[in-house]
Design a protein that fits this description.
Length: 450
């Protein structure tokens, strides 16, 4: 089909999606990334020139992107740097729960989770002196920026068509400018340090980096927050599942002395199969990622379909995540045990479901580099909340699942149509306890499973 003179191919077949992911020369996200970056970030002309691709056909056409991707990805592979980020995030999240006692208090669950998750993620990335932890009013600015990011990327009168998002972006840019000018980045994670070094090595000055940081924090929260929210909701709405998971999670929870609880998140993949299966099913149910690529040259896909140069290829995951052919007759039913027996299934079924039917983090060269950190943070926080706290409906009745609505163009996980008010209290057996964590190296690869 053609939209506004753009030729668009929509590909839903798992086999064809995999073929597109494999052929990174013919199908690339790089031109889209460059185009959006130039429109969205407030960068000077010298920086924009450095971001421009080399002549087409050059072996290093997208040097800027590939160098940056390599620098960031190397800090997110399993190892001590990733473990340090996990530890920082979980420690910070727990510190933000200290005011929750055994007495009930009312909270709006989505915003309550999101605000704390944003602070914890910022701490993991930029260290304890990050601007978000110092000024919580910036969290709402982050949500405003995320809500309007599609309009902002158009770059036409942003202060008019996306006023809140524009103001939010300006506030975030200023806060990160102060952070960098104050030299606080010396305590940032290796992920941030590597980004800085990559920018500097390519000739981009330090004063340009803060203009990109709001988007980095957005990438770390935009999909993780709703994924965590839905994980909690799908568990709370099913009392039997809630009880079973609390029992399963007790196997990685150890009391040390009179006032310390150690949570061994490194064992989640090995000892908590129902919990990790529930997480995967939540992603299958709520993730509606639409992969976009540009056709770099006329390409005959799998020897049958001619895709023309400069067209857009879209690969909507919801068509695969909600496919009867891939998942069977109960494809539209939430089944928390769906992923528990995958290794016992025939090889052809495993291949169909896992190589093309389940792609919540994208695929190919653009497979999300932060997927290990995001998963560990989501599951770690969910374990803390489910183990140490009680959640009940505001009216004292049965917890009702919020309705889902479509996500924005830049988002992958569906949002709730409205926030849900709940009562939260600390479980009495955990009152006064301090949480500590064993975060790795553990079995991340096993519970991510792709």
């Amino acid at each position: 089909m053609s939209v506004f003179s753009w030729r668009i191919y929509v590909v839903t077949s798992p086999e064809l999606v995999q073929a597109i992911h494999r052929n990174t020369k013919a199908f690339s996200f790089d031109p889209i990334f460059i185009n959006v970056s130039q429109r969205l970030f407030k960068l000077d002309k010298a920086t924009l020139k450095l971001m421009m691709p080399h002549p087409q056909g050059s072996p290093n056409q997208y040097d800027y992107i590939h160098s940056l991707e390599s620098a960031m990805s190397s800090a997110l592979i399993r190892g001590p740097n990733l473990e340090n980020m996990k530890h920082r995030a979980l420690d910070r999240f727990c510190s933000l729960l200290e005011n929750i006692s055994a007495e009930e208090q009312s909270v709006n669950l989505f915003s309550w989770i999101g605000d704390r998750f944003a602070d914890a993620t910022a701490t993991a990335l930029w260290g304890p002196d990050n601007p978000i932890s110092k000024d919580h009013s910036l969290i709402q600015r982050l949500w405003d920026f995320q809500a309007d990011i599609s309009l902002l990327s158009v770059a036409i009168f942003p202060s008019i068509i996306a006023r809140k998002g524009h103001e939010g972006q300006q506030r975030l840019d200023k806060a990160f400018q102060d952070y960098y000018q104050g030299g606080h980045f010396t305590s940032a994670s290796l992920f941030i340090q590597n980004r800085i070094n990559s920018y500097l090595a390519q000739g981009i000055s330090l004063d340009q980096i803060p203009n990109c940081e709001g988007a980095i924090l957005g990438a770390g929260t935009m999909n993780s927050v709703p994924a965590l929210f839905w994980l909690i909701c799908f568990i709370l709405v099913d009392e039997k599942l809630h009880v079973a998971l609390r029992e399963e999670l007790s196997s990685i929870t150890t009391r040390i002395g009179a006032q310390t609880v150690c949570l061994n998140t490194s064992e989640l993949g090995r000892t908590c199969p129902l919990f990790t299966s529930t997480f995967h099913e939540v992603l299958r149910f709520t993730n509606a990622e639409v992969g976009n690529r540009i056709v770099m040259e006329d390409t005959l896909l799998e020897g049958r379909w001619l895709l023309k140069k400069d067209a857009v290829v879209q690969t909507p995951s919801i068509r695969r995540h909600m496919s009867r052919e891939i998942w069977g007759p109960d494809f539209a039913t939430f089944n928390p045990r769906r992923f528990m027996d995958r290794k016992s299934q025939p090889k052809d079924v495993q291949k169909q479901q896992w190589q093309g039917g389940f792609t919540p983090f994208g695929g190919g060269r653009n497979l999300c580099p932060g997927r290990h950190f995001a998963t560990a943070e989501i599951l770690g926080v969910a374990t803390i909340l489910l183990t140490g706290f009680e959640f009940t409906s505001k009216d004292g009745g049965v917890f009702k699942m919020p309705r889902m609505c479509k996500q924005g163009l830049a988002q992958q996980v569906k949002q709730p149509s409205k926030d849900v008010e709940v009562l939260i209290k600390r479980r009495r057996e955990f009152e006064g306890f301090k949480w500590t964590f064993d975060v790795g190296p553990g079995t991340d690869a096993e519970y991510l499973a792709y």
